TrEMBL record:
Entry keywords, A to Z: Kinase, Transferase
InterPro entries per record: ATPase_NBD (IPR043129), Carb_kinase_FGGY (IPR000577), Carb_kinase_FGGY_CS (IPR018483), FGGY_C (IPR018485), FGGY_Carb_Kinase (IPR050406), FGGY_N (IPR018484), Gluconate_kinase (IPR006002)
Protein name: Gluconokinase
Family note: Belongs to the FGGY kinase family.
Species for this entry: Marinilactibacillus piezotolerans
Superkingdom, taxonomy of origin: Bacteria
Gene Ontology biological-process annotations: D-gluconate metabolic process
Gene Ontology molecular-function annotations: gluconokinase activity
Domain Carbohydrate kinase FGGY N-terminal: 4-247
Domain Carbohydrate kinase FGGY C-terminal: 257-452
UniProt xrefs under Pfam families: FGGY_C, FGGY_N
Length: 513
């Protein structure tokens, strides 16, 4: 009987499940979406029960569509988005929704902790102090929701919620834990200083386990609901960023992965924890010998969507009439403008920013706008701004690892030849696009094989992932970007001085109306 493995990725907007054979070939997949709720300004919440049902439905759908024998499924391995926080009571009932990485309400507490600890806490935990992190969100709950805080037995993430439902145990893998701001990445224990700041004890967090940990014996009623054997091993897995690197074969020294979807990230793998003296990058665990360092950005595809909605009604109308993707028309129009948008720069901080500035108050801006600029210049400047900001994160990485030897592209942007080429030109490097389906799901499946002893090393991924296409940098365009990038970087530092002032004005204006 042929064997299969199932990679499940619990994401911010959907849960995806992909069925692979043991050579990494995808056979069937399913995606179940759920909303991101914004009940008040700055909030970004989800219903954990809804996500649990999405996990079960995605597995059930893949098994049903594939029609494989349930005993042919060798393992189920998990990826999940980082930074989520759910307060639960003694019975395991949620007292809060799942507070996601996009929630900004803990920003004042992040600033307070940052001033209190400087970079010392970051250097121990590998997680920059920012409103995205469970550390700051638990602090916010303690101060702003004291009744809930008093009732809370555990603070958990969304994957912990799912595993508690499946195996009646609170466990958190080292990878998810290393993104909380609460784990000491050198001792692999909950950090005493971080716990004191959050106002909790280690008993209020889940049991720490390696990413390769296996769980068997799911309740038969749950197994039947999902169409799987009750004896199939569940591998707890890791966080989505780490597994995306694994899933695109970017786990060896010098290999860098860029992922741009709604948000984005650039990451590479080291064999030990590495933090940045300036606090610009994260450091998360994959296995005890694989650590993923890099930086996430808030402003990826969501900024392109803003561009579509606010600037590109003409392209949207034509696309609808011709049954085309409006983004194809937008990027075609962008491609007609010269590199550098004739001196127009755009800082893409429409929703604050994580790396490299880690400033929730950051705001977007056009600079250099003149009478000769047209709408098309602004369109191109927006896309260039997204990529220039990610390049700034790469510069921080290069201080830690040197110049990368290969850049691999994943996420929605990898489907756009124009966007990929722009990255190649700005970075001055070849951009390789792997032939893979849902990299985090494949990464989870490969980690599952490693956990089961089916492969000896994660480098086996090289046998499973082939390169689909390569974008080569254009030297002339690269020279244009070399002139503009220093201006872009200097401006981003100058603007830092005024972000707080303009946000104060925006908040006052909102309150007045």
């Amino acid at each position: 009987m042929k064997s299969y493995m199932l990679g499940v990725d619990i994401g911010t907007t959907s849960t995806k499940a992909v069925l692979f054979d043991l050579k990494g070939n995808a056979f069937q997949q399913s995606s179940v979406e759920y909303p991101l709720n914004v009940p008040e300004p700055g909030a970004a919440e989800q219903d954990p029960k809804e996500i649990l049902e999405a996990v079960k439905e995605s597995i059930r759908t893949v098994m049903k569509r594939s029609e494989i024998d349930k005993n042919a499924l060798k393992l189920i391995s998990f990826s999940a988005a980082m930074h989520s926080v759910i307060a639960v009571d003694k019975e395991g009932n949620p007292l809060t929704p799942s507070i996601t990485w996009a929630d900004q309400r803990s920003e004042p507490y992040a600033e307070k902790i940052k001033k209190q600890t400087g970079l010392e806490l970051y250097k121990k935990t590998g997680t920059p102090i920012h409103p995205m992190s469970p550390l700051t969100n638990i602090s916010w709950i303690r101060e702003e929701k004291p009744n809930i805080f008093k009732q809370t037995a555990k603070f958990i993430g969304i994957k912990e919620y799912v595993f508690k439902a499946f195996f009646n145990e609170y466990v958190v893998d080292h990878s998810i834990a290393s993104a909380t701001g609460l784990l000491n990445i050198y001792t692999m224990e909950w950090d005493a200083e971080a716990l004191e700041i959050a106002g909790i004890g280690p008993d209020q967090l889940s049991k720490l386990v390696p990413t390769t940990s296996q769980y068997k014996g799911i309740a038969p009623i749950l197994a039947d609901e999902m169409g799987i054997s009750s004896e199939v091993p569940f591998i707890i897995g890791a966080n989505d960023g780490c597994l995306a690197n694994l899933g695109v074969d970017a786990v060896m020294p010098g290999e860098v992965a860029i992922t741009i979807g709604t948000s984005g990230a650039i990451r590479t793998v080291t064999d030990k924890p590495v933090t940045d003296e300036k606090g610009r990058t994260f450091c998360y665990a994959l296995t005890e010998n694989h650590w993923v360092i890099g930086g996430p950005v808030n402003n990826g595809g969501m900024v392109l969507r803003w561009l579509r909605d606010e600037f590109c009604s003409e392209e949207v109308k034509i696309a609808k009439e011709q049954n085309q993707n409006p983004y194809d028309l937008i990027t075609d129009r962008i491609d007609q403008v010269a590199a550098g948008s004739e001196g127009l720069l755009f800082h893409p901080y429409l929703s604050g920013e994580r790396a490299p500035s880690w400033n929730a108050n950051a705001r977007g801006s056009f600079f250099g706008l003149a009478m000769h600029h047209k709408r098309e210049h602004m369109m191109r400047a927006v896309l260039e701004g997204i990529n220039m900001n990610i390049y700034m994160v790469l510069l921080a990485l290069e201080e830690l690892i040197g110049t990368p030897k290969e850049v691999r592209a994943t996420g929605g942007f990898a489907h756009s030849a124009v966007w990929r080429q722009m990255v190649a030109d700005i970075f001055g490097q070849e951009v390789h696009v792997p032939e893979t389906v849902e990299s985090a799901c494949l990464g989870a499946a490969i980690l599952g094989l490693y956990a089961m002893g089916e492969i000896d090393d994660l480098s086996e991924v090289k046998k499973m992932v082939k390169t689909r296409t390569i974008n080569h940098p254009d030297k002339e365009k690269g020279l244009v970007y070399k002139e503009l990038l220093p201006i872009f970087i200097r401006l981003s530092r100058l603007y830092e001085q005024e972000y707080e002032a303009v946000v104060d004005f925006q908040n006052q204006y909102t309150n007045r109306i």
